Amino acid sequence: MSAYELRKNALVAAATRPKRDIEFPRKEDGRPKYSSEVYGENVFTLKTMAKALPKPIFASFLRQRRGRQNLDKTTADSIAHAVRVWAMDRGATHYTHWFQPQTGATAEKHDAFLSLLTNFTPGGEESTAIDQFSGGELLQSEPDASSFPSGGMRTTFEARGYTIWDTSSLMFLRRGPHGTAILYIPSVFISYNGDALDEKTGLLRSNEVLSRAACGLINLLEPEAHVNHVYTTLGTEQEFFLIDRTMYALRPDLKITGRTLVGQLPPRHQQLEDHYFGRIPGRVMRAISEVELECMRLGIPVKTRHNEVAPAQFEIAPIFEEAAVAVDHNLLTMDILHKVAHRHNLRVLFHEKPFKGVNGSGKHCNWAIATDHGENLLDPTVRPETNYRFILFLLAVLRGLQEHAALLRVAISSSSNEHRLGAQEAPPGIISAFLGDQLTEVLDAIEEDRPLKNFSVPQFQSIKVGGTVLDVKVAALPSIARDLTDRNRTSPFAFTGNKFEFRAVGSKQSPSFPVTVLNCAVTAAIQEMTEALRAQMGSKPRPSEEDKLVVIRRYIAMTKSVRFEGDNYSEAWVAEAARRGLPNIKSAPEAYTYLIQEKHKRMLTEEIGIFSDGELLSRYYILNERYAKDVIIEAETMQTIVGQQILPAALEYRKSLAESAAALKTIGVEASPEIDTLNELTPLTKDLQAAYVALQEAARKLIDHEGHDANVHAQFAHDVVGPAIARTREAADALETAVADKFWPLPKYTELLLTI
User: Fold this and answer.
1) Region for residue 451 given its phi and psi (left: phi exceeds 0; alpha: psi -120 to 50; beta: otherwise)
2) DSSP 334-400
3) What is residue 93's predicted lDDT score, i.e. its pLDDT?
4) Domains of the chain listed by start with CATH number
5) pLDDT class of 19 with cuts at 50, 70, 90
6) pLDDT band at 476 (very low <50, low <70, confident <90, very high)
7) What is the pTM for the complete model shown?
8) Residues with Cβ < 8 Å from 718, sequence gap 6 or more?
9) Phi, psi of 180 (to 5 degrees)
């Protein structure tokens, strides 16, 4: 069967495939269950644990969970027994320590609850099958550490590594085959020597250091507050594409690299701006509804679903949770999306830029800081100009951003996100913060020691100063609440009412490292500002209002360079950012060098201390190696597609035209249309052939270059091979419009984006 016939069959299959429907859970009387009744039914919650354990054992676990004591063997064994019974009653046959190696994905190794008990009898040994799960098995497992990225910390013959139960994240069940289930134990992953080999360990460490620093500042400002713990909250808006799985199967570039290496935009894509928040296609609605049901059962609070800007692009977003749990839930959601999409004959694409020329996908990380009393430290309240605690924490975030913007750029840098940043509504690579007019006015008024200006908008005179009420001038419509700030979609780091939205994070990234870096940068700033406040207050038991204002005014002036309210895409901003001294990092390999730059390295390893020198250096090597490998894979995939599919298609079309022209001439019919088409096609084919040969040479040099320093190798991939891939794509895309459709071997953008 020809490639053209496969494409057409795929289109027919997409249009005629039967729909998959599932029934929402129902009560015994047949009525649908409320979402709240389904929520968390597959989670071993604290409430479930409390019912299953003796009170002293449960109390001991809570003390350990709060960091007040170690988990003793008796408690561990009791929890292991309780969770095994709970899991096996629900069909579990296996358990797994679920962890986050530095691969961008999660990992798991399944072990059975089944064990053999050997009895020695006069007649010999006799084995009895039993179900068993000990506290030791709950607490840790041993995957092969040499088979995961370690950045040189581990060698092939040093294989031992440990996964350790993260007691701050609840255990849960996931369905397995044939009606069985698997018990998942959220874990960290460390080497034999105790070095972090995963994404989660650094995040948990960063949460602890931020808590200590924030509690220190709050209790200095308000000793009566008695704040003992501070934590970061996170809400991850997950963007993704959904395309027909049969179409996906015919695109080797999508299967291997996650993005289309060739392809022309269809005549109609997102330019009419009609897809965003439009009606969700029925097939997609069925899939996302099933995803939401699975998420509810796992205690993942998915709140929002909608069409995104590009065709076939969508978003789901959860309610905020504690950051480490939110990361677990985001990674689980991505996996659920993948599996459920497969059941609906769809394929989910998490690559940041799977289709050239339309919106890419991000993972907007909405981040805030809260106390153990439930107070959001980034809530401006009604009068932010007098809420000095809020102002100090706001300035700490700005100061952390100002001092370590390059580190945040490292945290969002990858070969895939590089295609997205700065294009089609994605934020650029210059890290700055957007506060909005009102908060900017608050900071300016404090700095200048003057009253706040009276905000007014001529067409809406009933807008109150403080931005709380908006009258839309239609009698039948009520006045509405208005947020303190507008949104700036071009800003990589925007304040959005009571949180910051880190918009630059890529859609397929784990949020762990970006949030870890953000936590550390803010922690360093809180420590710096706390010391400044102590120096200002001298021997006084607590700072006066004037002491606070002195420090606040100093940091308002200091952090002006990182605040920007305008269009982050404009050339004027690039020049202005350079004048302000903000780093304008153009590539991922360039960004990676800042990870081991002395200033940032000292903050992460000495001042904050969440990484050892070895752990930080290993991450540097892993990032560079991953970048170069991604580019090599793309180059080799492009060579395969061009050499085995696109060039043969162009040559076959040329042959068909030539044969037609010759046949027409033999019967005395003018063949100028065929000849003109041939003359147009020939230089395009030669251009692609030349680009293909140049790409082969560039890829060979990159492979030969592997012995060099990791960053030099990655930079070579960016500077030499990346442009060679782009030139080959340009030549291939020019041919796509010249070659007759029946000869073209790959599903086109029209078929990929517009057939769901």
Assistant:
1) beta
2) HHHHHHHHHHTTEEEE--S-SSTTS---BEEEEEEEEETTS-BTT---S-GGG-HHHHHHHHHHHHH
3) 96
4) 42-189 (3.10.20.70), 624-753 (1.20.120.1560)
5) confident
6) low
7) 0.92
8) 587, 588, 589, 627, 631
9) -85, 180
